[in-house]
Amino acid sequence: MGAVTIVGSYVVALVVDTDRLPVAEETVIGWNYHETHGGKGSNMAVAAARLGADVGFLGKIGRDRYGEAFLELLREEGVHDEDVLYAEATPTAVGFIISCTDGRNIIVTDRGANGDFSPDDVASHSDPITRADVIVSPLEIPLDTALAAARVAHRHGVFTILNPAPAEDLRGHDLACVFALTPNEGEARVCLGLPPDDPTPDEDIAVRLRQLGVEHVLLTRGEQGVLWVSAEGTRVVPALRVNVLDTVGAGDAFNAGLAVGLSEKRSMAEAISLGVTTASLSTEARETVLSYPPRDAVSRRFSEVLSSIA
């Protein structure tokens, strides 16, 4: 069993369904409002635990009912909660999700306590990083905090996966401590200071991202799978053919599967395939936590992805 530590975020998700996504200045009618667990770090922790990893969580929550509900979730999923920190004056983060019946979504988040998670917190709580095989950080926490964790991990021979979501410009930052960078298509462009719809080909974007110092760039592209750029060149890892119902949290499932594969000392191709399989299967159910598959379901279809890598 590999050890994975999520150095990341929890966000309570406030969800409403619609027939179509609104455009600017438009109001649409929704239904099925509900609150559920969210946040990229939380999603990754649950998904990795269901894949069989020994998972820990290092991050920050508020002293409120949302934060306590998160701790209960970790206990239910078998994730270590002893390194969850409290922000004294800031509430637990929230995310507002408009989920469309065609599978698309709009998400806006308020960082809340995630924004208070600092490099000093990492320095004083480094044990869950140094004892892991892999750490994963999304950017719902400050970039400086994620990179501080990556530097600690690098010094101790621990792999770091940096998921730049929400994306920000990464130029000017030394990413040599990052093993894998995992943006989607729009995020990849923002990381280079470009608009998310810049027409530059994905392969060129991924090559430029790798020049920031990371070993592997894994550009996630939904139903097209993953574009993988490394020192060995460029390869495509296709997604599974599945019945897509909801894509929310699929990127988090990919990062979790990738981390678990690396923690098990699998090859990079195998680790990416585990991530792609986990992400693909997660789209067949609604929401995030409820959609993450158990290891046996992923294992049954893992070889389909691995055998089709181009």
Report on this model:
The mean pLDDT is 94. Helices cover 34% and strands 25% of the residues. The strands form 2 sheets. It has a 9-stranded mixed sheet, with helices on both faces. Helix 6 packs across helix 7 and helix 9 packs across helix 10. By secondary structure, the protein is an alpha/beta fold. The protein has 10 helices and 13 strands. The two termini are 29 Å apart. Strand 12 and strand 13 (233-237) form a beta hairpin. It has one domain (3-306): Ribokinase (UDP-N-acetylmuramoyl-L-alanine:D-glutamate ligase). The chain has helices at 40-50, 65-77, 119-124, 127-130, 143-155, 185-191, 202-210, 250-263, 268-282, 295-306, and strands at residues 3-7, 11-18, 30-38, 54-62, 84-87, 93-100, 105-110, 134-138, 159-163, 180-181, 216-220, 226-230, 233-237. The longest helix has 15 residues, at 268-282. It is globular and about 45 Å long.
Q: Please state the CA-atom Rg, rounded to the nearest Å.
A: 18 Å
As residue ranges, the low-confidence spans are none
What is the CATH topology classification name?
UDP-N-acetylmuramoyl-L-alanine:D-glutamate ligase
Strand content: 15-25%
State the CATH class. Alpha Beta
Number of strands: 13
Question: At the fourth CATH level, what is the homologous superfamily?
Answer: Ribokinase
CATH architecture: 3-Layer(aba) Sandwich
The H-and-E topology, N to C, reads as: EEEHEHEEEHHEHEEHHEEEHHH
Number of domains: 1
User: Helix count, per DSSP?
Assistant: 10
Span from first to last CA? 29 Å
Structural class: alpha/beta
> For the report, how would you describe the main beta sheet?
9 strands, mixed
